[in-house]
Design a protein that fits this description.
The structure is a homodimer. Chain A is mainly alpha-helical and about 130 residues long. The first copy, chain A, has 5 helices and 3 strands, in the order E-H-H-E-E-H-H-H. In chain A, strand 2 (about 35) and strand 3 form a beta hairpin. Chain A binds a DNA duplex (30 and 30 nucleotides) through helix 2.
Chain lengths: ~130, ~130
DNA sequence: ACGGTGCTTGACGTTGACGTCAACGTAACT
DNA sequence: AGTTACGTTGACGTCAACGTCAAGCACCGT
């Protein structure tokens, strides 16, 4: 009954527009660990989810090493309180970094918005001047 | 009268915690172009501002090549309408990228927040269970 | 005149994140 | 049996973003 959907290396590479080499590379770096059917890799839903996290992490500018670390934050699988505490601490650290990045991103956006308004204003002035010259 | 503050390469490297090598590298890549007093580099307020933009861009995950391009967006110095239009178009492209990144960043933050709440909830449950066992 | 400090320009080394072969296995089609 | 498609594991290449020397110039205090 439980239809467990799986993916080949090509399936994922096409869907996420990356090369198979990249997927093997991520595996080599310990970011993914798909099952094997003989020698071939077989990715499941969880692998796919992790891949999505990896790619988003990259787009946000994090290194594979960083990503590798916080990927575990999404795998709550053990039942030890100490582990959970450490997990929570690590999560807080990461949250701090993310919030700081959002701050900087917001600043950047605001500054660019200002620049654009200035250029727009200047363009309008030129337009009015041209109109007046008619 | 106009006290124009300047900085040596060491001044900036200390202030921003980067090596002189990095500053020379950025110059080599066309991101900075400080004046020279003889052979020595002499950075002014504008150079310092650009450097701050560069470093923030890096923290947001952009490449030096990307940063180099949009650095010019902050240098409105010519008086051509066509140039201004192009500038505005480029700015809009960059704004789109920034907004998209903010979206992804927000998603990431929300997901992590959820994960943390789950772990916290689990820790609380453990606490209650331990209490009940007393 | 001498040593120290800080700067300069090459030139080569390094690390991360893959790309690009080469050489081979395997399953499917015809 | 041959070819086509898709997969595999090395091994080496590449590009960005610097680090790390080496060798040398310029001023400064003693």
């Amino acid at each position: 009954m439980s239809e467990t959907k799986t993916y080949s290396i090509r399936d994922l590479s096409l869907e996420y527009d990356i090369t198979p080499r990249t997927l093997r590379f991520y595996e080599d770096k310990g970011l993914l660990s798909p099952l094997r059917r003989g020698t071939q890799r077989i990715y499941d839903r969880r692998d796919k989810g992790r891949l999505a996290l990896i790619l988003r992490g990259k787009r946000l500018g994090f290194s594979l090493a960083e990503i590798r670390n916080w990927l575990d934050l999404y795998d709550v699988r053990d039942g030890q309180v100490a582990q959970a505490r450490m997990l929570l601490d690590a999560s807080e650290d990461r949250m701090t970094a993310l919030l700081l990045q959002r701050e900087e991103l917001n600043e950047t956006i605001e500054e660019l918005k200002l620049q654009m308004q200035q250029v727009e204003g200047w363009l309008d002035d030129q337009g009015l001047a041209a109109e007046a010259a008619d």
